[in-house]
Specification:
Number of strands of chain B: 10
Strand content of chain B: 5-15%
Structural class of chain A: alpha+beta
Distance between the termini of chain A: 22 Å
Distance between the termini of chain B: 52 Å
Shape of chain B: globular
Oligomer: heterodimer
Bound molecules: flavin-adenine dinucleotide, iron/sulfur cluster
Strand content of chain A: 15-25%
Number of strands of chain A: 18
Amino acid sequence: MNRRALHKIKNIFKNRCLTDKLSRVQYSYDATQKMYLPDVVVIAENTQEISQLMKIANRYKIPVVARGWGSGFTGGALNIEGGICLSLEKMDKVIELDLDNMMVWVETGMVNYDLQEYVKPYGLFFPPDPSSWKFSTIGGNIAENAGGPRAVKYGVMKDWVKGLEIVLADGTIMKTGSKNIKDVAGYDLTSLIVGSEGTLAIITKALLRLFPLPETKKTMQIAFDNMSKAAAFVNKILLNGIIPVAIEFVDKDAIKTVKDATGVDLPDADAILIVEVDGSKNQVEEDAAKIERLTKNESSVMLFRIAKDEKEADDIWFARRSISPTLKRIADGKLNEDIVVPRSKLAEMISKLQEISKKYGLPIVNFGHAGDGNIHVNIMYHTDNKDETKRAFKAMDDVFNECIKLGGSITGEHGVGITKQDYLEKQIGKEQIELLRRIKRAFDPNNIINPHKMRL
Amino acid sequence: MDKRLYEAWESCVKCGICRSVCPVFKEEKTEPFVARGHITLLSELIKGNIDFSEETAKDYLYKCLLCTTCVESCPNNSETDTIVEIARHEVIRRHGLPTYKKVMSKVLKSRELMDFAFKSASVFSPVFSKSQSKPRDGIKLRTSLAGIEKDRLLPPISKQTFLDKYKDDRKRAKIALFPGCLINYTYTSIGDSLVEILKKLRIDFTVPKKQLCCGAPIYFAGNFEDARYLAKKNIDLFLNLDVEYILVLEPTCASMIKNDYPKLFMYFEDKKWEDRARELSRKILDPVKFLHDKTDALNSLKRLNIKTTYHDPCHLKRAQKIKDEPRAFLKKATDFVEMKKADRCCGNGGTFSIDYRDVSLKIAKRKVKNIEETHAQYLVTGCSACIMQLADILNQEKKDIKVRHTLEIINMAMGGKSEG
Ligand SMILES: Cc1cc2nc3c(=O)[nH]c(=O)nc-3n(C[C@H](O)[C@H](O)[C@H](O)COP(=O)(O)OP(=O)(O)OC[C@H]3O[C@@H](n4cnc5c(N)ncnc54)[C@H](O)[C@@H]3O)c2cc1C
Ligand code: SF4
Ligand code: SF4
């Protein structure tokens, strides 16, 4: 890295500018488990210094990669060609809680869960809840347009971000959006930046909508002897006029993995649905009773269970939340994709996945958000087995092709990053990629903000 | 090095879950001070991708409480504590021990030196320290000494050690007591409480005089050689006694003997001693669990008119899975109120509280509000290191809450002498 540039950066960040190898190693990875060393790590404390940093980076054409808590699954926070790792983990404060408008301004290094805890005493909550909510930041959530189980009812990040403070590649600090419920002045830059995977600007602050905490909720676990029937059951629930806050599914292999890893007690089923309803006490009772009645008429249901208290609900969720990180027990290699299909195609996609698993002779573990057709597909293989590795990538090809054929998308929540860039063009076509590039250039002419992601 | 160690760090998938639970990370908020960071560091070190200087190693590796909260929450059971211990060992192997830890090892390895050190401290204690108004709560230094600030509340030093006080009466006894250094030299009253309880229940016990420090402080510092020396001495001594149980009063010592002795020999592929350690491991029992499971103590309690709350020591709750038994006693004998996050580490972590006093206090401070919210008069816990830490922070925050060991409350409820 240019010595003068480094000298200037050191002057700004002082002891929060880390150049020793040990520190750089610590900021070289994320949940993809790939490693790329940054040349320097800076730990930011305010927008001003980020603006100064960008001016230097832009002038010397040094890549800058923003980083939240590094829980990303597509390598977004990795410094592919070195440069600056800009960590926002210390910018984690609430700036303004506006109860009248039910909105909050926060620094984007704040962890999603900490925000939830902050607004809870006011009878409010922030609906987007990625499974990683306890260890991912609002900035990372915005950049990836993260969503979680509650998306069926409440949507994803883009539905809750009203405005942003951003720093552009040339150091310009800018605010987008407003507190107005209706605001159609100009292009909707806020929405453009939500989901931009940290490639357009550094997001330093966010204006978020909040929602009143529902009075109560109920969590249910339904075990099925047939995965496709479980998928079809999701639509039955919705068609009966119930919009659960979450409908999650876990397939057979996922059940087994969690059982082995954590010892929790789970039924031996082909699939488990976790259904949660929220709202007023009466509404919740009614919805739960309706769902129970539906299960009685469904021959493939093996077990129906309602959590009696919060602890039991936590236990039901614990199993779902533990799957992803425990997969390593099946095989050391995993191609983890979060495809999404229109809900009506969920059952069809699941049977396609089972066919693909048979065709290539590899375990495919599936779980995810049945309520919004979002499937976490995990193709497991042993990295030291060349043949298995080859088969795994071929299987992945099939998965994406089938998904796109059904009108689905290659990613529902983790983003494209580096791991899925090969497939983006397949889905959206050459012309759209070219348009994305032109937008990127308008924001960042020298391509210094998180280059190499999404092939930009 | 053992293949199992590679597996230990290979198991980490870098998901970041540990970031949400680590007490040190909560204060420091940067990657090097969390399980994921520690694990990466050791793997890169062993692979030879990075080199450790003593300074960086100290910065990165010693700022971990070994509280195992991350291990408990990690979906892959990555054993960060083991990994950090081994990394520290690696650093010591390359750079040697810092002087004060060298001295510490030397002293801890010899009962005579320990006795001498503490007896001198007891004699000179009035010269360099002043008692607080309530002597049970501790003393403060008149000037800062050996890295310990003068405002820090320290445990009172006993005139007679626990080991000196009671007989090595092994003829009839089926139970041996292992007080641990803190109770032996300072919080003797906790040991006295157990003795009074056992006497009331007519249970014979013996206090083997030749027992040595369990070695935990040495082992946690990464000094496996000296820890091994102590482990062998204690294994020999206790396996030769014909007792059913060894009641270890300090959870840290219990966890060291029960869990870490076997691990220690495993690292060196010393199968014979590993087996012996496992044999001893089966006899180790926490006294409160013993009273709960094996005696009628619970039914012999009188109700005390006091309000209590309980703090879970890491080495009791996580290392030994004991959390319900102490609560059962407190619920029976007192007006018990659960505090929020009762199992969050108090921040003591042995020498951590000396090396990183500021972080240690910040961690402790987070407990104060939760304790206060219960309106309890007594904060009860099962570990004297936690008592030392929490009494200190409550004193600094000027809170009038007494800190007592579960055994002291049980003893009070059995009619034993009350410290008030
Ligand atoms: C076990 C597990 C479960 C998960 N479950 C879900 C889930 O249910 N739903 C879901 O959507 N995701 C999930 N994820 C993925 C991940 O947690 C999310 O993508 C999350 O939003 C990333 O947040 P982070 O703070 O860790 O960001 P990082 O990983 O640090 O960064 C992610 C991307 O955001 C960019 N970025 C971060 N902060 C900023 C900023 N301030 N300004 C500009 N760009 C920024 C980075 O450059 C990078 O491109 C899961 C991950 C794990 C490990
Ligand atoms: S130590 Fe466990 S919790 Fe932490 S990153 Fe590794 S796998 Fe995840
Ligand atoms: S043992 Fe405790 S202090 Fe150390 S990394 Fe784990 S949670 Fe943090």
